[in-house]
Amino acid sequence: MSEVLEKGKAAKMASYQMTGLSTEEKNTALALIAEQIVADQAFILEENNKDIETGKERGLSNAVLDRIMLTEERIQGMADGVNQVTKLVDPIGDTLEKIEKDNGIHIEKQRVPLGVVGMIYEARPNVTIDAAALTLKTGNAVILRGSSSARFSNIALISSIHRALEKSSVTTDAIQLIEDTNRETAKELFTLNDYLDVLIPRGGKNLIDTVVREATVPVIQTGAGNCHIFIDESAEQTMAEKIVLNAKLQRPSVCNAIETVLIHPVWFEQNGMELLKALREHEVEIYGDGTIHNAFPDSKLATEEDWYTEYLGLSVSIKIVESVEAAILHINKYGTKHSEAIITNDDRHAAMFLQNVDAAAVYHNASTRFTDGFEFGYGAEIGISTQKLHARGPMGLHALTSTKYFIKGTGQVRR
Amino acid sequence: MSEVLEKGKAAKMASYQMTGLSTEEKNTALALIAEQIVADQAFILEENNKDIETGKERGLSNAVLDRIMLTEERIQGMADGVNQVTKLVDPIGDTLEKIEKDNGIHIEKQRVPLGVVGMIYEARPNVTIDAAALTLKTGNAVILRGSSSARFSNIALISSIHRALEKSSVTTDAIQLIEDTNRETAKELFTLNDYLDVLIPRGGKNLIDTVVREATVPVIQTGAGNCHIFIDESAEQTMAEKIVLNAKLQRPSVCNAIETVLIHPVWFEQNGMELLKALREHEVEIYGDGTIHNAFPDSKLATEEDWYTEYLGLSVSIKIVESVEAAILHINKYGTKHSEAIITNDDRHAAMFLQNVDAAAVYHNASTRFTDGFEFGYGAEIGISTQKLHARGPMGLHALTSTKYFIKGTGQVRR
Question: Closest approach of chain A CAs to the CA of B390, in angstroms?
């Protein structure tokens, strides 16, 4: 039996046991995990260093190496994260509906775990701890499939988690890692319908596209963020500039950073050059449409492809659009339904934009960078869903739950 | 451009217009549809008769022909159904969360339409009206893909719907039918990710399995119901028999009817023969395990395949299981996560069963036939979801909605 199949079966069995765990049992296990990874940090750092060395040999970029790298501080941060999850309210067992029927039947809809969650992710080993903590808190079993570039780190972290679980009432099968990082093991997870209840990819566009295309297991799409800001005719110059710079620069590599700015021609005529200069001063590469490129030679001419591009870095596409309607059309065509903003003093335009732009989060006069589970006060974030089923936008613990109807009778039959 | 692509694009454009529809506008359009199909009934029946004649030539069974057949009464029933939907509370625009942040940002999570719903279904032309009404009420555009066996009926119904919409403020692109019933058009819908937000198959296991396997569009799985009743040692004889007969016989062709009875050996010894005889008196074919088959020769010996089979007719599999734990294991292995019941006077056994059986609806001392959107009081039913994401169990209007975060600021940026 393959590693994936074997671990899938074990996870399914574990998930049945886990439906009976009390909040206290889960929190105790979480606290033990937080403690154990700090206790094991020398070993974890040693194994992490193997990944770093291998990564250097393979010529990984410094940015990627930084994502893989663990330090004492980062391990403490992971442990703190787990302890935060302990404090969150346990959603499992919540009663969502009560229906009393005339025939005496009592129906109750309760929140239950999803069952087995599959997680496929890249580079960052902290996702291993993060995903383990959130799935455990929600009574799910999890199968983790990290990338080869963090393999030693992930194996070390899982062994630490297992040491912790052995002291708890949670089976070690509740949290498992696929150690074989061959492409085939990812593909096996895509179609493990008998044992996986959901598959959550966390990573770049290629990973997510592949999962959506190939998986027969239900998927939650996360993360692709080709986000826009539309600066309307009536936008305040300082507010627009401040928001654009924040949404582009405060953390360019994340999904809620903006990739395209759409500008009303009247606003552009009055304030456009200043904005373009400010962006260039911050070393942002500008891909402009014809008007922008002509007016501002220190820019590149955008291709059709650029409007679709999530740069995740110091680049931005800029286009002049004639109206709020044109902005909406552009965003609904090129966007990824993540976070979209309008800067305007015209409430009618704002309302039209918020209603008609098809995205998880729509903003009026604020930075798109707020789309985040912690910023929204959920105390956790499994990812940011860009699909419309099950969960949309920042996913807290609820996204890792399902529901179940409990019906109690005294012999009732249907007439 | 293919029919599917063309209608997909038109549906997407329609869906953007539909987010702005008021409840009144939607209800007016629904009332017009109800009126129009009754006004057009002569034409609809004429076209339906073509399907019936073609079906007879193709040698369709009487059961299938009955599902296709329309009558004045059935058309009136469809119109009544649409009028019922008019009366349901409109979920769109409901505020689900309000978050005020210290920095003055105001976040509101509201219920919004899904966008474009694809529906692939078999035989029954009433699904055309049903799906049109429910998607319109929830502000979604819909693309319907019925089967070739009801093609004339569906085209007639859609033309009637369009005549109604022309008198309303809803575009006719909101409700479209794929007229080409070639297998290829279904396949095209499976991967129409740019224009479809969800695909809901309604039909037999083969259709649903194909959609799950081949679709890249998000799918809601409905309907497969390999449901069980476990008769525990302490079950009352009369209650157990009454519930088993009801769950098997009241309407054998539907998904919440039972397909397998699991019986505790002690109960079987005392009451088993009587139950088997009662089932045979109602012409139910019995597929028993070794014990049953030996004790009751008027039965067939069940094969491994039989435990997986959804008969949807007058057949039932019966097995002796030693304990509630064994019953749970059997159900979690062979079931389809739909509706599962335990008959017992032992509350501890009931609690164990309800918690550990993995299904949308779990019953203690009641018939599985109650799993139904109307029985649960939702006033509508799009189908019964057997998956755990998005919607589980009977799906009312909420299952056809998503959510969206509306964020209003005064220039806030992230620090």
Answer: 4
Q: Please name the member of B250, B369, B413 whose beta carbon is closest to the beta carbon of A246.
A: B413
Question: Between the CA of residue B94 and those of A189, B311, B398, what are the distances in Å?
Answer: 37, 41, 11
Q: Do A218 and B115 touch (CB under 8 A)?
A: no
**Residue at B20: amino acid letter:** G
Residue B385's DSSP bridge partners are: B222, B393
Which residue in chain A has the smallest CA separation from B357? A16
Task: Say what percent of chain B tops pLDDT 70.
Answer: 100
- Count of the separate structural domains present in chain A: 2
Q: How far apart are CA B150 and CA B203, in angstroms?
A: 14
Helix (H, G, I), strand (E, B), or coil: what is residue A386?
coil
Res. B191 pLDDT band, cuts 50 70 90:
very high
Taking the C-alpha atoms of residue A282 and residue A276, their distance in angstroms, rounded to an integer, is 10
Does the distance separating the beta carbons of A197 and B370 come in below 8 Å? no
Q: What is the ipTM of this complex?
A: 0.94
Chain A residues with beta carbon closer than 8 angstroms to that of B388 = 114-115, 197-198, 218, 402
What are residue A113's DSSP bridge partners?
A401
Q: What CATH number is attached to the domain comprising B267?
A: 3.40.309.10
Q: Going by DSSP bridges, is the β-strand pair A95-100/A106-113 parallel, antiparallel, or unpaired? A: antiparallel
Q: Please give the residue of chain B at the shortest CA–CA distance from A216.
A: B213
Q: Are residues B256 and B277 in the same domain?
A: yes
CA distance A369 to chain B (A): 6
The residues that bridge with B285 in the sheet, in sequence order, are B315
